[in-house]
Amino acid sequence: MGIPDWRKLLDWRKLLDWRAWRTRLNLWATLSPVERKLFVGIFLGGMLLTAGVLVADAIGMLSNLERWLYDQRAKSCQYFTPPPSDQVFHLDIDDNSVEAIGHWPWPRSRMARLMEEIGRASPKAVAIDVLYSEQEMLQKADGTLEPSPGDRAFSEELAKVNGVVMPVSLMIAPPRSVSNVESAIMAELTNDLELDAGELNGRLRTRGFTPEQIGPHLEERLLKARRTAVYDRIRNDTATGPVELGELLPRLLKRTDLSMGTPMQRLVEDEYRRVMAVREMAKLGLPMPDNMRPPVQSTVKLVPLAEFTRASKAIAFVDFEIFNEPTIRSMPLLIEHDRVLYPQFGVALACQLLGADVRRMHVSSAEARIPRTDGGPDVVIPLRGYYSRRLGRDVPLIMDVPYFGDERWEEMYDWPDHGTPKQHLPLAKAWDICLTRDKIIRNNAAVDKGIEIILGDKEDRNLKIEPNLARKYADLKPDPEDTDTRAKWITITERESLFIKEQFETAIKNNQPLTELEKAQWLDLQDAQNTFRRAQDESAKLKKQLIDLREELAVIKDKAVLIGWTATGAADVVTTSIHPRCPGVVVHGVIANAVITGNWWRTAPTWIAPMFTIALGLLTAGAVGFHTPFKAAMAAAVLFFGYLLLNGVVIFDYGNHIVGAAGPLVAVATVWTGCGLMRLTHETLQRIRTARDLAVFRHEMELARSVQQALIPKEPPEIAGLQPHGWTKPADLTGGDCFDLWKLPDGRLGILLADASGHGLAPSMIVSQVRALVRVIAEIETHPDRVLDRVNARVAADVEAGRFATCFLGFLSADGELHWASAGHGPQLWCDVASGKITEFDSTGLPLGVTDTWVGDVAPPLQLQPTGMLIVFSDGIFEAPAPDGNMFGVERVTEIVNRLREAPAADIVAALREAVTKWQGKDVPHDDQTTVVVRRLEVTAVTSTEDGYRAVVAAHAEGG
Q: What is the number of structural domains in the chain?
């Protein structure tokens, strides 16, 4: 086989031939009027169903499905997701950390030590996902409380660490209407914070409120409103400048004895600290521009202490349940409180790492740009709007959280294997360093004590070897963790104590008695020397251990560090698109990773998903309208799964754009189902109508068949000297063939074989008309030629153009004379039995109905010899096809006639019928089949009469 010519196969002229493509795609032209009407109905139904899906999607009926598809897309479509940044590191407060460091809450002094070690590792930014909103208090011996020094130590360590981000918890609640009574309560309390329930009730009554309007439980409402009133009052009184608490208390609590430490006094103190903390927090926020559309508004729920905020570089919100949904898919970039904007926690951490100043952020409805101080490219965060049913309004500045990895959040940074935890360390690693330092400090303290025992003179039992050296060492004050300096002084101390040691050993060896003081000094000397040896041995190990631990923690150097809860049973656990249970701090890490890498998900314009919905709905309707149910189902499946791949892999994964999937997919399923039911219903009704019409048609055809069968001679006419026989088999219920054998008025045998073009009802009606006309006209005309001429005139006038009938008509007398005419019919056979000669003769004129005037020649009569035969047959006999396509042929007819030339006419007809049936391999013929055989018997006497011919014949003994 030769190589194909690809230039011909890819001929650009053929590919660009629009006429050829128009012909290929013009499916409309292939439809019948009924199919076109059905298509239009199905297409209109598909349009209505598509419109219904659009409405359902617009009013939120598909929201649950859309969210599920969103989550599945986030889980499965990560083929083109770039690897995450290695600049984000987590220090987890996990189970091991809680077990090692102690039950929560940890003392602030302990947190200060942890922050000291974290700062020593030199991270570039640290975000602490722990809220420190309450002051730590210590109980004094007399039972009173005083502020713990741990808060100061913690804030001092925070100030030493680079880029500290502290969290704030902001509460978002839908706006609610405030009644006149509530407004009056707040007004009265703001004016006088010390009102009790009775006084408040009296003032409300003075304002004109009835007991029914005031309602029950005024005491409970008072307690809730008082805290808000105290907060507002303090905020108003300190708005112009800082006011000390000691100055503010007498101004607010005029009737309270401030020396008693009343609950009201403690409430004012708490709210004062809260107001001061909010003011410090506002210094790190972004003042909201006057022309900016208000984003999510909030009230403060938990705010870090003012000293912690002052020690920080940024403050950000950490709340997840912004939209009151169980799964965290998106997050506001900014939340507003008191005209100040606060960024999301992960965004603030990443900006500290990149050196981007959140307070210089430029915000539009589509994106936020944060300039970097190092001159690098701006941080760009794509944004979108969101209609919050909880808040009852559109919320701007929403960012989609671009999750990655699998359900195991610990392994999400192990890209792409996700087999081992990566970029996570337990906070216990930092605590191990603290414990190691404690051991070193304890060893060094023991060394200091041993040096004092041997050299110093502070206590009576000290050896007092070199008090001056002891004082020199005390003035030196080496660092508590300085083992090297102490090693030098251990050497000095042991050298100075060598003489006294030898004296004690000699005295003991010589059994010299020792005083009680000397015994105590000897024991102290031994203890000190043992301490020196143990300290030197342990210090070397602890120093190496300290170096190793700090090297492990050094992985956070120049990184963005997130400190947060991952321990079992932690309250800060959320559900994301990928993780069924995930620590909240991990979500902050995902957002920080997106800021660092720039790999964000962007929501496409809102019109794109409806466009896909309309396109897929109409394509599905067209497929159902044009194609069979199976092909329509295949087309719908291709559209359904094709859009899944397009939406998930191409648009979302490769293009990082989010386009709605529920509407288009539901449109395909709904339109295919609805339009399929419409088509099924129509086709079912059509089948019922067709079956009914077919039953009527079959009944009519059976009637027509019975009428046509009635026209076929049941028995041949009895004419002396002639033995006629005929047979016909239609290819359908009615046939286009017809034969007739009848006795003419003059006694001759009329022989008719008519074959109309085609087969079925119309041809049967034509040949029936021909038979009727021949019968009638043969009563008048005596020659077949004139009979066919008159029959043709009638047939040509009645039948439509293109229809015709071939016909053989012969009048055979008992003496064998045959007058005949053939209108396009042939061939016919003339057999002389005596000689065995078979003569074939053809038509004498055109078929009937071709022209208005029959064109034909008058054939001379033929003489049929005694025992001779006339064989007339239709084309369905010699054109009968075998399974291989070969036709039966006239030769086989001639062969059968020749073989059975002495047999009766009925036997010859039966032999022909059997041979043709066997040849074609089936009983139902391809075309109507008709055969007429007439044999002339041997004549013994002939007498002429006025009525015509009369013959007495004697048949052969074998012929009967």
A: 3
